Amino acid sequence: MTKKNQTLGEFIIENQTEFEYSTGELSKLINAIRLAAKVVNHEVNKAGLVDILGQAGETNIQGENQQKLDVLANEKFIQTLTKREIVCGIASEEEDSFVSINSQDEKHQNKYVVLIDPLDGSSNIDVNVSVGTIFSIYRRITPVGTPVTLEDFLQPGKNQVAAGYIIYGTSTMLVYTTGHGVNGFTLNPAIGTFYLSHPNMQFPETGKIYSVNEGNYVHFPQGVKDYIKYCQKEEGNRPYTSRYIGSLVSDFHRNMIKGGIYMYPKSSVASNGKLRLLYECNPMALLAEQASGKASDGYQRILDIQPTELHQRVPFFCGSKKMVEKAEEFMKA
Ligand code: AHG
Ligand code: MN
Ligand code: MN
Fold first, then answer.
1. Are residues 187 and 257 in the same domain?
2. Looking at residue 24, what is its pLDDT?
3. Atom in ligand 1 nearest the alpha carbon of residue 64
4. Residue 23's pLDDT band (boundaries 50, 70, 90)?
5. 26 with 133, same domain?
6. Residue 250, ligand 1, Cβ within 6 A
7. Domain end point (choices 198, 228, 252)
8. Both 268 and 192 in a single domain?
9. If you average pLDDT over every residue of the chain, what do you get?
10. pLDDT value at position 171?
11. Is 274 in the pocket of ligand 1 (CB under 6 A)?
12. What's the CA-to-centroid distance between 121 and ligand 3, angstroms?
């Protein structure tokens, strides 16, 4: 049951019974994410005030510059989840490998692993534009009581038990699903409480917004070029409007509310596009499907893909169902 203006804390407790054999472990985990979100929100909001802007001078495993806030957000999330001993492992876009967490009291008793993109859209930090955090939760495959292995993280997205994002925008929101629809909570910064502001979020079946980095146009496959031309054509409810923030979380959030499609196709310079299957595409795909939308690599369902490596990239088409289906049609042709 969802009641508008309920706090996130109340909502978590009330909806715990949705899970069969629930021990409260997942609720505790989401509570910890809620806490980490507030800490990172605090850091993001003071980004312009303290000497925190700019690059940390290091590159992550994918050779990208890490912004200081990327490093900080990564630390805060890992610290919060580790200290509370509520997960058995964490994998992060900003870490080379996964982290195994040993519980102090009963050894390795936790059954969930978390995957995070601690700061998404980090190129927007220096210019005061919305960024986000993306998280994804799985039940481990290996037996409880043993250290986690790579296998626990390389699960197809359809195995996710929960996924969500935090958007640090004009207001800060936490949007998540545990497989029973998508709910959005807005932070009241004065008292540090998230309130249910967007119950049962749904992608409109179709929309008028397409989001893609058109600077890469000449490198796109013919199907994508043709679909973009289709979006621009004057016919029916077209031309569509082009909107691209360059922060997946923000582009997705807007498209879910207004109706639209987000695309990061493969290109002649990036054979699998840019986005990471485990930290970005799978969680967003689960949210999309739970909100009546669709997520595809152009040919198949994102959530069905069997990952082979932690930092794997995949082409991504996600948003209003009819729009993603149309893009797939063009890809096939
Ligand atoms: P991150 O900041 O975690 O590296 O992710 C950025 C991603 C995604 O959020 C965004 O939509 C996309 O990269 C933008 O890429 P381009 O600048 O190539 O368009
Ligand atoms: Mn990202
Ligand atoms: Mn990131």
1. no
2. 86
3. 4
4. confident
5. yes
6. no
7. 198
8. no
9. 92
10. 96
11. yes
12. 6
Q: What pLDDT, on the 0 to 100 scale, is given for residue 21?
A: 61
pTM of the model: 0.95
Q: The CATH number of the domain where 242 resides is what? A: 3.40.190.80
Note whether residue 203 is domain-resident: no
Specify whether 186 is located in the same domain as 256.
no
Percent of residues, the chain, with pLDDT higher than 90: 79
Into how many domains does the chain fold?
A: 2
Closest ligand (CA of 219): 1
Q: Confirm whether 133 is domain-assigned.
A: yes
- 117 close to ligand 1 (CB < 6 Angstrom): yes
Residues 38 and 113 both lie in one domain? yes
Tell whether 253 and 306 lie within a shared domain. Answer: yes
Residue 204 lies in a domain: no
pLDDT tens digits for range 199-224: 999 999 999 999 999 999 999 999 99
**Alpha carbon of 93 to ligand 3 centroid (Å):** 6
Domain of residue 175, residue span: 8-198
CA dihedral 47, 49, 51, 52 (to 10 degrees): -10
What is the residue with the minimal CA distance to atom 6 of ligand 1? 121
Which ligand is closest in space to the CA of residue 283? 2
* Domain shared by 262 and 189, yes or no: no
Model pLDDT, residue 47: 75
Gap from CA of 13 to ligand 3 centroid (Å): 30
Which ligand 1 atom minimizes the distance to the CA of 124?
2
pLDDT score at 62: 74
Name the residue at shortest CA distance from atom 14 of ligand 1.
Answer: 246
pLDDT for 319 beyond 60:
yes
Q: Examine the domain organization and report whether 244 and 143 are in the same domain.
A: no
